[in-house]
Amino acid sequence: MKNxxxxxxxxxxxxxxxxxxxxxxxxxxxxxVANVSYIIVRDDDQYKGIVCEKDCLHKITLNGLKPEKTLVxxxxxxxxxxxxxxxxxxxxxxLMNSFQVLYLPVFNGHQFLGVISVYDILKETAEEQHIKHxxxxxxx
Length: 140
Known about the structure:
The protein is of the alpha+beta class. The protein has helices at about 5-10, 25-35, 55-60, 90-100, 120-140; strands at about 15-20, 40-45, 45-50, 105-110, 110-115. The protein contains five helices and five strands. A hairpin with a 2-residue loop joins strand 2 (about 40-45) and strand 3 (about 45-50). The longest helix has 21 residues, at about 120-140. The protein starts with a helix and ends with a helix. Pfam families: CBS.
């Protein structure tokens, strides 16, 4: 399996950022337009956390809050585990499983590089399996 750096290299640059001062409704609209289920929260180019659709549903709907009046900073997740470019995808899966998260921010020191999702890892695994099976049939 590839490491995080190799997975990031296969992604198109899709950094979807929003300010912590934006409303949750603005975050949801941006997620919809970008066709993603999470958004990175940054203020002055500094990473603050992540907001996911699921969090919006749970924190807004179940608490009777209004997305047009609730600020992103009030629902963002600050304590996602993070990974480095050199981490293995196996390590990523272990973290995702342990913390029950679908996304992992990638940092090189303090520099934010992107996000690895469980879907990225599943896609890579499926492609590796396809290549392996194609190779097996070629020489059979």
